[in-house]
Amino acid sequence: MMREEFIEFLKQKKKIVDEELDRILEGIKTSPIYPAISYSIKSGGKRLRPVLLIASYSSFKEEHEERTFPFAVGIELIHTYSLIHDDLPAMDNADTRRGKPSLHKVFGEDLAILSGDALLTLAFEVMSSVDSIKPELTLRCINEIAKNAGIEGMVGGQVMDVMTSPDETDEELIYYIHSKKTGALIKTALKIGAILAERDEEEIAVVEKFGEKVGLSYQVLDDIEDAKKGTEDENRLTFPKMFGIEKSKEVASNLLNEAQDVLKELSLKNNILFSFVRYLKSWLS
After folding, report:
1. What is the mean pLDDT of residues 91-112?
2. CB–CB of 198/141 below 8 Å?
3. Averaged pLDDT score across all residues of the chain
4. How far apart are CA 88 and CA 72, in angstroms?
5. Are 54 and 136 in contact (CB under 8 A)?
6. What percent of the chain has pLDDT over 70?
7. Side-chain half-sphere of 114: how many Cα atoms within 13 Å?
8. What is the CATH topology of the domain spanning 3-284?
9. For residue 97, which phi and psi values (nearest 5 degrees)?
10. Domain ranges across the chain
11. Which helix (H) or strand (E) holds 205?
12. Residue 151: its pLDDT value, please?
């Protein structure tokens, strides 16, 4: 259950996800929007969400891991589109992303908007083209991702974020925003893994609960890192701004302990999800 197990898993599966993304990019190489899309896809990133989807699946089923790849890639395409749009002047107005100029700084706002649109629709094209699993599973996975990427999830959280200034927020609102804006896709990635592994509804609900806790803790930890580095966005609502760094650490620690307890309700084939919790806990040191 040591964090190194997840770090190694992340490294191995990130390579697979990157190869799948390269394959998809190859299919649109002649499009005039390819350079902009490729710039964002290849700008780095942990590929955490798709890797968590694969981790969830492999925690229940050891064979046919490849059936997860279209959905893992789909979630990463959606995540990338969200980052492109978040960086736009009308949103977070960020000039850099992962140490490089943001897409709109290189290709212009118009192509940045269109690139985000293209990645979102490409995600659903990739996921709906699967023919190796039951159609009802594909449909359910797409529905889950659409809900949690949209009004009820990521977009809904972003809407509340842009509509609320830091001095207007309260504890309930900040939990809502970050559980939707960041937590929703992480939770969904984990849930999709369990659905594709064809677990029963009780087990899927437990995985979803686990995803809610680690998804929110991930954002709290990210906020703490930004606060410690002095790179916080003054216009964003963050846990350190509301609670301070030490209290935010306590919030994240409690969430991760609860997530660990939730996992104990499941019969898993390996310790990779426990190792993921340990990986996040190491950020608190």
Report:
1. 94
2. no
3. 94
4. 25
5. no
6. 99
7. 11
8. Farnesyl Diphosphate Synthase (1.10.600)
9. -145, 120
10. 3-284
11. helix 201-229
12. 96
User: What are 13's two structure tokens?
Assistant: 């599966």
Residue linked to tokens 């770090």: 7
pLDDT exceeds cutoff 60 at 1 = no
- How many helices (H) and strands (E) the chain has is answered by 14, 2
Task: Give mean pLDDT, residues 262-269.
Answer: 96
Residue 40's closest CA among 93, 91, 76? 76
What's the pTM?
0.95
In three-state secondary structure terms, 20 is: helix
Q: Give the H or E element holding residue 123.
A: helix 109-128
d(CA 256, CA 242): 20
Distances (CA, A) of 159 to 61, 73, 154, 178, 279: 37, 25, 9, 11, 30
Q: What is the pLDDT of residues 122-147, one digit of tens each?
A: 999 999 999 889 999 999 999 999 99
Burial 112-143 (b: 16+ CB within 10 A, else e): bbbbbebbbebbbebbeebeebeeebbeebbe
Place of tokens 């999830």: 153
Q: pLDDT tens-digit profile of 4-27?
A: 999 999 999 999 999 999 999 999
* pLDDT band, residue 229 (cuts 50/70/90): confident
Q: Measuring CA to CA, which residue among 78, 218, 201, 233 is closest to residue 142? A: 78
Phi, psi at 56, each rounded to 5°: -65, -45
Question: Strand 96-97 vs strand 100-101: parallel, antiparallel, or unpaired?
Answer: antiparallel
Higher pLDDT, residue 169 or 72: 72
Distances from the Cα of 72 to the Cαs of 82, 100, 164, 187, 246, in angstroms?
16, 24, 32, 13, 34
DSSP 94-122: -SEETTEE-HHHHH-HHHHHHHHHHHHHH
According to DSSP, the residues that pair with 249 across neighbouring strands are: none
